[in-house]
Structure prediction request, 450 residues.
Amino acid sequence: MQDKERKSYRWYKLDNAAKIIPSSARGADTRVFRICCELKEEVKGDILQQAHDELIDEFPLFKCVLKKGFFWYYLEESEQSLKVEEDHLPACYPIYYPGRVNLLYRISYFNCRINLEVFHALADGTGGFIFLRKLVTRYLELVHGLESGKYEGETSSVTQKGDDAFDQYYEKKKLGSQLKQLKNISVGKAYQIRGEMDENLMPHLIEGTVSAKKIVALAKENGSTVGIYTTSLYIQAIIDAMSVMDKKKPIVVSVPVNLRQFFSSETARNFFGVINIVYYPSRYDGTIGSVINVVKQEYEEQLKEESIEQTMNTFASWEHNIAVKMVPVWVKDVVIDYFNRRAKKGVTTTLSNLGRIELSPEVAPYVDRFSAFMAAPSQQVCISSFGDRMVFGEVSPYATHDVMLYFLRRLVSLGVEVELASNDFDEPESKKADIRPERKERKKKKGGRK
Prediction:
């Protein structure tokens, strides 16, 4: 009897941003992000499965598993199929396990919510929303017999969704300019947010929903954009939580930047850069204006086209360095993990604004909101908007959410109504944090399990 012929599978190299992900996924930092769509009706699991099965061929990388080569990790197509399940795991639960060959995303539902969770080596938040938006659209078409038009912002082909945009736009730079750029983005040790850590490092989720129109109006009143305003307000919340001694250290807010805004690309893979907003509490005079002035200047300087290009090329250049290429992957794992831990000491928190999500007019009336969460060893806040719903989402191993609650309290004091939800449903009422400055208010819990 002849041996069966081994099937040849297509493989893809990891994009530049994804290369450090497998080596740095540790403990609470699972490198998994969750993006959710909350409908105005309960989700039907069997139809969601059908929608997924009809859609998945448009996203060939989502059908891949992660393999470990001699020099780099890589993605290889797989015959595995995903089963849509009712949500039964904590948010941002690990997806990638070294040595295990499995798909790098999961889809679940609970009551009115559709959840997409993705291992960051596969895609970034924008890429995840591209997938989720199409999934929700197809699901609603099947449920309600709609013939919705193609979302006008969606023009990419199957090939374009899988493009490695880092490689496409990389320009070789001299080593001297690389070292100079790396030195410029390092600020040493930053203030670290502390809290009551979950003994099992289980994720604790908090979600605040506000009126997008009110936030836009507040930003305009203060002569800034939504991104600058929310970053400034969050820095104020961090200062609220700091002791006098803590205020000697700088607050460093890491802000992911969607590079599709600067380079023509519709890839669903990773294509983002990072800017670091540095603020010294000694400059704070108690007003948000004293924060906005600094944050605005930092944004304007670091978002200049030449700065974005230089930053992208600096990071991409190490991937193309012949000496780095020849180092075995197990050595890279150790080195990347070391430098990743050092880099975290220079960052206080991360604030990721994923922007406004758009749907075609036929399906939009069935959707209530979108939200996003990113696993982090400390705290990371994700902002997403749909219609007049702006959602601030945080998931962390901390059982307390002091900074986030200070942030939401500031919004309340500005006249913004906040709808608060959490997965800490079993916590005694007496221990639950209150977003009101002085009096207890019953918090609304929406959507069941997050």
Q: What stands out?
A: The chain has 13 helices and 15 strands.
